[in-house]
Amino acid sequence: DAGVIQSPRHEVTEMGQEVTLRCKPISGHNSLFWYRQTMMRGLELLIYFNNNVPIDDSGMPEDRFSAKMPNASFSTLKIQPSEPRDSAVYFCASSFSGRERSPLHFGNGTRLTVT
Amino acid sequence: AQKITQTQPGMFVQEKEAVTLDCTYDTSDQSYGLFWYKQPSSGEMIFLIYQGSYDEQNATEGRYSLNFQKARKSANLVISASQLGDSAMYFCAMREGRDNAGKSTFGDGTTLTVKP
User: Do A56 and B103 touch (CB under 8 A)?
Assistant: First the structure.
């Protein structure tokens, strides 16, 4: 059974460029989460979806960040324009809502470097 | 206010010894779940163990057990017979609400180093 798949694994871009991170959740999972991890701020929840609908985007830093989930098997996180302070590891995770003990299943993350 | 507090930034343990990683939480919900995850140096996040707020027994999974003290709002992870491969960062997380669709809030993590 394939886990959560994120692409790319690494992204290096220049300030001002658009960045798109991609995520394929585990088949059958109906909740999807985007987290950002930095040394300074730890693991922060950016946004989460339930049944493809955004439920809470209060963690999205600013309007430069946007996320979509057009169907149950795909989500994107876009940063436009990117800034050096966006450098971090971005994790996508999925779980099955409706099952109390369902943990988060994380992808391997995308390490973003903005120069 | 921080919902999940892990007070130990770093811990050391001798191989084959047991170690306890502390976690306290803050919630007004009656229904919630507590999770522990492991993040090795390679970066992936691995689920270890779960404790539900209504569970009467402490959770156990192999060498991992959870010392759940509901009145004190603590959910400490105990790793028995530590192995070198246990060296990693460990995160405590809480998910509030019975419908389980809610977000998980993470602590700052504890870095565990197992000494040979």
Answer: yes
